[in-house]
Amino acid sequence: MHSTQPISVGILGATGTVGQRFIQLLENHTFLRIAALGASERSAGKTYREAASRSWKQSSPIPSAVADLVVLPCKPDHFAECRIIFSGLDADVAGEIESHFQAAQFAVFSNAKNHRMNPLVPLLVPLVNADHLDVIPHQRAARGLDKGFIVTNANCSTTGLVVALKPLQDAFGPLARIIVTTMQAISGAGYPGVPSLDILGNVVPHIGGEEEKMEAEVAKILGSVRGDGGGFAPLEGLRVSASCNRVPVVDGHTESVFIEFERRPAPSVEEVVAVLRAYRPEALTLDVPSAPAHAVVVLDEPDRPQPRMDVLTGGGNSVVVGRVRPCSVFDVKFTLLSHNTILGAAGSSIMNAEIAVAKGLI
Ligand SMILES: NC(=O)C1=CN([C@@H]2O[C@H](COP(=O)(O)OP(=O)(O)OC[C@H]3O[C@@H](n4cnc5c(N)ncnc54)[C@H](OP(=O)(O)O)[C@@H]3O)[C@@H](O)[C@H]2O)C=CC1
Ligand SMILES: N[C@@H](CC(=O)OP(=O)(O)O)C(=O)O
């Protein structure tokens, strides 16, 4: 069971798109309490209400418990009362700042790309590879720390994809080849993000670095912890090709996924649907209050999932799959939808922290 004692948390990048989502999701959390907020020098010294009033884009108002907190510079000394640090920092600064907080013995849960491929840092998707936290003792030992560590989330498009791939790999693997085409929401680009003249009535077929991140991250996430606990053995043999597009949707990344299995005969559509529906990752067996009831929700309607209707399924922490059907080139194809700032960012970080608490790492 998780600690019934409240745990104080700090949020770095609190004024940004992901930072705001942390604040919204933590408003009524059972044991995580926001104690401190950090952002750039542009925001530091202002109350959160002053600093974020223009950029706040959530559908609920700024919670009163944080509105009058003074935004702090992102330096560990200012966060002394916190045990957990959630980072929604811009990647230009996240790497160095997060390392400082780790060295100062904080448990850091990052959304940025900087530390994701570090061989001692779990690239943790809470509904997929909670066991990768087994490397934390080794990370601490390697850096001479007794409490501090860094865990990162995956890229938001990678996250939705691996939640659907993991049960298929476990049941029917190995996976041989994946082709994925994304249709990504504008909130993925942060605030103010993509200019309206670029995206309204349009599709932009390029998101810098996104395809490379998706192709690299899948193998680490679907890989295993090495036998000595000293790092990760990436999944070998799987080839992934991603094609990423920005579309005029506010929240929710949609992906068309084409899968080829090594196994012959390949699983049927009915078998794939049954395995997706039955998927119960480790996080759903632990005391993880933010976990959705179902990691994957499969819809039968021929025109779903759709971001406007389905993006908040499972509180935004489920992956919604639809249109599961045979593929005449590979074996099976489907469409999936995941919330890019909830499961794809702040929601995963919060579940990652809840898992770490449940496993006694915090
Ligand atoms: N949006 C999404 O769907 C996803 C985003 N991510 C990643 O999460 C991170 C945050 O993304 P997002 O919220 O969209 O970005 P935003 O641009 O909306 O927010 C960036 C945040 O970083 C702060 N910041 C910028 N420069 C500095 C600095 N020099 N020192 C301290 N703080 C600084 C900003 O503060 P200030 O307001 O004061 O400038 C702001 O709080 C990024 O690394 C992104 O790649 C990951 C998955 C999904
Ligand atoms: N690139 C994602 C969001 C993001 O910031 O990804 P990453 O954390 O991998 O840099 C998007 O635009 O939708």
From TrEMBL:
Signal peptide: none annotated. Keywords: Amino-acid biosynthesis, Methionine biosynthesis, NADP, Oxidoreductase, Threonine biosynthesis. One of its GO terms (molecular function) is protein dimerization activity. PANTHER family: ASPARTATE-SEMIALDEHYDE DEHYDROGENASE. The keyword Cell division does not apply. This is Aspartate-semialdehyde dehydrogenase. It comes from Blyttiomyces helicus. The active site is at C156 (acyl-thioester intermediate), H253 (proton acceptor). It catalyses: L-aspartate 4-semialdehyde + phosphate + NADP(+) = 4-phospho-L-aspartate + NADPH + H(+). Pathway: Amino-acid biosynthesis; L-methionine biosynthesis via de novo pathway; L-homoserine from L-aspartate: step 2/3; Amino-acid biosynthesis; L-threonine biosynthesis; L-threonine from L-aspartate: step 2/5. The keyword Ligase does not apply. It is an enzyme of class 1 (oxidoreductase). GO terms for biological process: lysine biosynthetic process via diaminopimelate; methionine biosynthetic process; threonine biosynthetic process.
